[in-house]
Each structure stands twice: as structure tokens, then as C-alpha cells.
Amino acid sequence: MRAQKKTKLSERTSDRLYEMIMEENRYEPGSKLPNENELSAALQVSRTTLREAISFLVAQGVLEIRRGKGTYVSETLPDTGLNLTALSSLRAKERAMDLFEMRLIFEPETVALACQRATDEELQQIRKKAERMEQVAASGGDWPLADQEFHMALIKASHNEYMRRLYPIINGAVNEILQISQNRQQMQEIALADNRLILEFLMKRDETGARHAMSIHMKHLINTLNR
Fold this sequence. Notes:
Elements: H1 9-23, H2 36-43, H3 47-60, E1 63-66, E2 70-73, H4 92-117, H5 120-138, H6 143-157, H7 161-180, H8 184-203, H9 207-225
Antiparallel strand pairs: 1-2
Helix pairs in contact: 1-3, 2-3, 4-6, 4-7, 4-8, 4-9, 5-6, 5-8, 6-7, 8-9
């Protein structure tokens, strides 16, 4: 398991701020961040650590400091990568196939990394996400969102920064595909059954089993899209 203490607190704080801005959309482009006291309390770090984290995000072009006014989210945020939902030149079904083939390539290895690197606390959070998806699906709620939260928790537990930043981009494309899919109910049933199996291997830190379970999950979804 990767030692978490090797990462400086200021770096972890900048990562958390990045998530809040770029992935969770808590602060819109051009908006002002809370003052130092409020933000450092919310992130549970000192003001010195917060300043270091902000400096890092200023260098990345995510934040900007306006003298006498405070810290603001940049009006034009850096490009996080390829916009997968913009591939309008491809037919919807072809686009869906390409997307899930891409997930088949990297998600099995990601869950294997999570078996190695996840903290015990992260494993419990993943379990809670899986349980919440079951509840949301049973009540007729937005199960795709709950499913994505489960997969995002897996990605984070892999402790691979590039995978973590890629997944929100993939999510947007998955949402678009599910809106047009004629097999949405069947995909829900597949997701529920497969997630249980993935979780079972993950909780045992069985890399081989988790990798195969995730691979089977993606192949199930690809076969459903082919119908």
C-alpha cells in the first residue's frame, strides 16, 4: 500500500481544492473563494498550508490572486482534456462502443491498484457508495449518478492522479449515452449485479478477482450496447 505521508499536506490540499473547483463545480469561473479563515477551517489545514496550496493552483492557472480583493477562480479554466461528449461526427452507438472499450482498457487495472493502495477508510467509503446505489435504484432514483460515484470512489482509491482527473470527463460521455440508450433498465440490472462482485473482491484486496470482475462488467455493458 502506498504511504500517504509521503505526499505533503499542501499538495493534498491543492488536490482537494482542484477537485472542488474542476470536478465538483463548487466555485464557478470568476467567483471569489471564501476568505482564508473560512477556507482553512473547511479544509482543516493551517492558513500557511492553504497559501501554499493556492500558490500551486495559481501556477496551474486554476486560481488568480487579485490584490486587495482576494483569491478568485480563473475566468478561463485550463482544459482538463478531451471532451468525449463532443465527438458528434460519430454515430451515437459507435461512440458508446468506443467509450466502453476505453473503460475496458483502464478500469480493470485501476481497481487492481485500488486493491493495493486503498486505505481501510476508503474501502468503507466504497462500500457505502455501493450500498447507496442499491438504495437509489430500488427507489427509482438517479442510479447512473450513484453508479458513477461508486466508480469514482474506486478511481480515487487507486491513488493515480491521471486516472482521477480523466474519470470526470468520461462521466460526461457516459451520461449522454445513457440518455439515448434503449437498454437503460438492463444496464441498471447489470451494474447492480456486477458492482456487488467487484466490491466482494475489492474488500478482500483480491487484485486478480477484482480485475476480472471489472473486465466482465465492461464486457457485459458492451454486449448490451450491441443489442
